[in-house]
Specification:
mainly alpha, 3% strand
């Protein structure tokens, strides 16, 4: 009896081979958070932004650097300093802006075709035409130009906080009760929740909401992610077809889930109290270098 049971279990080599075949055929889903989020929504955001800015400038000609600085200053309303520019969602917004302008500058000075249109279709791995992607993209587009106006910044951040909160609640409801679970919807929720938590953190920095609202939101997303991971595994099992046995099906699901690097995703919602307080104390401004 034990022998028969062992014969039904797939070997690790079999599971790995099936997984690699599927991966090479680009049919393995990827719901992992974009590494850009874990870089700029962190305690290392200021250093990461300075590194990106310096790297982009070193990679440009003098003419391109001049055009880059001019366009940036224009986007910032004529200022060379960005309040809290090295912090959280503002650092994330500047990082996106740096990349966009550097691409435009290179395209115009080198005579190449702009890739902006194609890149605008995705933001942090999710479609910018999705409701969650649209809210995130538009919020980040606004931040560089209003960061130095605390009142405008507070009003705008509160508005987008509410929009994203309600969209994430609706999105969660659709996935859990209306059978709208998919790899795409899962990644959209994860990305939206991670950005929303840091929008809320920035609201505390702006003295717009109490500290407790960050902790309650974190706990809510931590609990929600646990439920969604279970539902996602069920979704994968239902959609893996033409496998020889349930044992192989289950092993493949486990291997796919392992490949998603869910520990990194969970880390966004497992901040200990001391990390939350360190994030809230961040106040680094960012200053452009003149050419």
């Amino acid at each position: 009896m034990i022998l028969m049971r062992s014969l039904c279990l797939p070997s690790l080599a079999t599971v790995q081979e099936l997984f690699f075949v599927a991966r090479d055929a680009s049919i393995i889903p990827d719901i992992s958070l974009d590494p850009v989020l874990s870089t700029f929504l962190s305690l290392d955001s200021s250093a990461a932004l300075r590194h990106q800015y310096a790297f982009l400038q070193r990679s440009m000609s003098t003419e391109q650097q001049t055009a880059f600085s001019f366009s940036l200053t224009e986007e910032l309303g004529g200022s060379s300093r960005v309040t809290c520019g090295g912090v959280g969602v503002v650092a994330l917004a500047l990082s996106v802006l740096f990349d966009q302008i550097s691409q435009q500058v290179r395209g115009s000075t080198e005579g190449g075709l702009s890739t902006q249109r194609s890149q605008d279709k995705k933001i942090f791995g999710i479609s910018s035409s999705s409701r969650i992607g649209w809210i995130i993209q538009n919020y980040l587009r606004l931040l560089p130009g209003i960061a130095n106006n605390q009142e405008k910044m507070a009003e705008t951040t509160e508005l987008y906080d509410n929009w994203l909160k309600h969209e994430l609640l609706d999105h969660y409801e659709r996935m859990t009760t209306k059978k709208r679970m998919s790899s795409v919807s899962m990644q959209q929720w994860l990305t939206g929740a991670a950005v929303h938590l840091h929008i809320r953190i920035h609201q505390v920095r702006l003295h717009s909401v109490p500290l407790g609202s960050v902790e309650s939101l974190r706990l809510s997303y931590k609990s929600g992610l646990g439920r969604l991971v279970q539902d996602y595994a069920t979704y994968l099992r239902r959609n893996i077809q033409e496998t020889p046995s349930p044992a192989i099906q289950q092993a493949l699901v486990s291997r796919i889930i392992k490949a998603q690097d869910l520990d990194r995703n969970r880390n966004f919602f497992l901040y200990p109290e001391k990390v939350i307080h360190s994030l809230l104390r961040q106040n680094d401004d960012f200053e452009l270098k003149t050419v």
